[in-house]
Amino acid sequence: MRLNTYLSLLTIVLLAGCDQPVPVTADTNKQPAVEETTSQEVLAKSEDKSGVPVYPEASVDMQLQQVSEHVWFVQGQAGIATDNEGFISNASVIIGEQGIVVVDALGSPSLAQLLIRKIREISDKPFLKLILTHYHADHIYGAQVFQEQGAEILAPVGADKYLDSPNALERLEERRFSLDPWVNENTRLVAPDRMLDSSEQLDIGGVNLTLSYLGTAHSDGDLSVYVEPDAVLVSGDIIFEGRVPFVGDANTREWLAILTRMEAQQMSALIPGHGAMAKKPNEVVALMRRYLQALREQMANAVEEMTSFDEAYPEADWSEFENLPAFDAANRINAYQVFLSLEAELLEE
Ligand SMILES: [Zn+2]
Fold it and tell me: For residues 184 and 204, is the Cβ–Cβ distance under 8 A?
């Protein structure tokens, strides 16, 4: 796989180098960005003698924090996507007798490279799997570095939808500009080796992981990882601790059902996709669940009574949530989004 990718890149580089038109195949057709992104010089510079790519050194403060006997994580800083060299999301590390599983790949190859260095301070076991909770830029651009380490990449169904969308390449092009040099012409979109559309167990020697396929809650496909015996949940982006989430075009009906199931699970810690680890995980999940429930109930009343959104919104009761961070920025947009989706759900019935 790695060799193939390398060879096809090399072919493109050689062809581009002698000014030949790049042959149009179904594949290059799909990924027009590749041909203009590599030059022999860049490729040569970005590899060490063994052919393993070396990425620019990230200079962010990244601390590997121990969560439980087998689980560690690094916490990205609060901020927008281009702050802090793109280190705004979390990654988790689970170490069993057989090896290491990493959940989410951070927002650049440089960050992933730094994470691997941190991991190597505590373990020399092989990298078994990289699990991506969902395909959004801030969680996947480090994936190629784990692939180079030999990790199998697992992701929920929906990753394919993201990779096929024009948005995926547009976003990468934009980040190559806004996050240069951390995301640059050597950064590529990596497809998962395998996609999950149901739940499965993974035993890595004394540690059991339950990978739960969550459907299309926050993105085109979401996945969570529950680690036993530690009782730690790695939730991806479906949990936002202590603040109002941006619902976006998430399916709130499914999201709500997932949170209700999670709430019933005994958790000692919860590592979200962004922000601090939750010390009282069940309370955090319960708050998220109540928020989504309130959004849906308040807006369902309006839809049923055929009240307009502008009339219904100020009359709704948001008192439990109006003091939470991001309420002002997110709540009205969320309510409107849910209002529209409830109208659509009504038509489905
Ligand atoms: Zn995210």
Answer: no
Domain boundary residue, one of 234, 259, 283: 234
Question: pLDDT tens, 174-232?
Answer: 999 999 999 999 999 999 999 999 999 999 999 999 999 988 878 889 999 999 999 99
**pLDDT tens column, 107-131:** 999 999 999 999 999 999 999 999 9
Q: What is the pLDDT of residues 55-95, one digit of tens each?
A: 999 999 999 999 999 999 999 998 788 889 999 999 999 99
Convert the pLDDT of each residue in 250-262 to its tens digit.
888 888 988 998 8
Q: How many domains does the chain have?
A: 3
Closest listed residue to residue 181, CA positions, set 301, 277, 85, 309: 85
Q: How far is the CA of 308 from the centre of ligand 1 (A)?
A: 32
Is 92 found in the same domain as 72? Answer: yes
**Residue written as tokens 């109006």?**
322
Q: Do 36 and 87 fall into the same domain? A: no
Q: Does residue 271 lie within any of the structural domains? A: no
Q: Which of 219, 234, 249 is the last residue of a domain?
A: 234
CA–centroid distance, residue 346 to ligand 1 (Å): 30
* Ligand 1: centre distance to CA 123 (Å): 27
Of 133, 135, 146, 113, nearest to 46 (Cα)? Answer: 113
pTM for this one? 0.77
Distance 312 CA to ligand 1 centre (A): 31
The answer to whether residue 12 scores a pLDDT higher than 60 is no
CATH code of the domain containing 199: 3.60.15.10
Q: CA Rg, the chain, in Å?
A: 21
Distance 237 CA to ligand 1 centre (A): 6
Distance (Å) from CA 139 to ligand 1 centroid: 6
**Ligand 1: distance of its center to the CA of 138 in Å?**
6
Residue 23 in any domain: the answer is: yes
Could you tell me the residue range of the domain that residue 222 belongs to?
56-234
Determine the number of helices (DSSP H) and then strands (DSSP E) in the chain: 12, 12
How far away, in angstroms, is 311 Cα from ligand 1 center?
33
